[in-house]
Design brief:
Blueprint (H helix, E strand, L loop, with lengths): L7 E5 L9 H9 L3 E7 L11 H20 L5 E4 L2 H12 L3 E5 L4 H16 L3 E5 L21 H8 L38 H8 L4 H14 L4 H4 L12 H5 L5 H12 L9 H22 L24 H8 L5 H13 L4 H14 L4 H11 L5 H12 L14 H8 L4 H6 L19 H6 L15 H17 L3
Parallel strand pairs: 1-2, 1-4, 2-3, 4-5
Length: 488
Amino acid sequence: MVPAASPTLLWFRQDLRLQDNPALQAAQERGGPIVPVYILDEAGEGNWPLGGAARWWLHHSLVALEISLRERGSRLILARGGAATVLSRLIAETRAGAVYWNRRYEPACIARDRKVETGLAAAGVATKSFNSALLFEPHTIANKQGDPFQVFTPFWRHCLERPVSAPAKLGSKPLPALKHWPISRKVDELGLLPRGNWGAGLGAAWRPGEAGAWAQLKKFVARSMDTYDDERNRPDVDGTSRLSPHLHFGELGPRQVWAAVRARGKDSGVFPSSNGARVFLSEIGWREFAHHLLYHFPRTPERPLRSGFAHFPWATDRGGKKLRAWQRGLTGYPIVDAGMRQLWATGWMHNRVRMIVASFLVKHLRLSWTQGAAWFWDTLVDADLAGNTLGWQWSAGCGADAAPYFRIFAPVLQGAKFDPGGAYVRRWVPELAHLPVEYVHHPWTAPAEILAAAFVRLGETYPPPMVDHASARKAALAALQAMRKSPR
């Protein structure tokens, strides 16, 4: 008679789903009871503990996961503290013989996981980790010289030469459970929800959890994927996938997205034939590229990849007045203010507008990209260290495959091009809702009678531009030249 397998601790992290979960699948194959556990280990996140919006999302995603596990005859053990300490305690309580988890790629998490793995191995506990978060793990991709890629196009071309494995499906059987479960915290005891009513706007905009992720994926594939190439830059239309927070928290995996897009187009080739599908999957490629860079250049969340930018002459901001105006959406440039207010209200911002507001901060105000990255980290529900770092270094011109610093977005032109009817601005900057379209992106140029008719009083109901575009552009280019001439 074969002895029953000991319990397996299934350590959930940023893989808060049951379908296409390799660690869960392996735990089932091992046999024996499965003990799902989530540990809020903020010290293990290094310098980047969860921001406020991400904490809100995590709370609701854990609630959803717990419900899904109970439907399978299991439950979710919640704990708070150092991962190594909590896992050791649970091993002693459950007599678990193995701990399985899915890998993360942030520098602090890699170091934490290695320490956990070493400690458990010394205690005689088996450990296994798996890939659930990426199509292609960073350590498996290199250029012809064996070095990491620093330009997206050759990186993605290289990736597309490799097969993408099909997502695994969880069977319908209940998960093998313990007879006596260890003590668990309640999700409310983790203290993840923000104080006050900030979360109300997030709740109106999102449905965290695996079911919400699948609903959003199906909606996008059916309604928006074929027009994605044309509409993805338009914040005034619902043309993007809005899958980023679901992917970040692992409620949905990239293999599942890949399979759904391919199935919708009924493609049998290496890459989808639909142009919208190709462009969308290249955005999944940018997510892969971001993790590739973070893995190989782990200091980039705090330091520019292009070392010369460490000496860039950023402007002074006594008292943080400029930064606060940008954060609050009070710059006087409607497309910038609309984006910042959308971010605060919903925990998300359209990607085109992210580029516009980032360019404004680092080039019009000449404030460091690290200040913008910190604000996004705290306010985005999809705050991802790899993606956040790549995006801000791209905007500042100091990262891999970055836009040149001398490429300075003109907010008025960007607004007119990508929000031509002004619907996006009117939604998020209601003070300007009654302005005619020809003035909605630059209200300071409207005649007095037009402003009066639209109930706009510059300097009272809406601020004038905090900087002049032409002057700010000139100052930014001068700063770039000064950096280049610096002996450092």
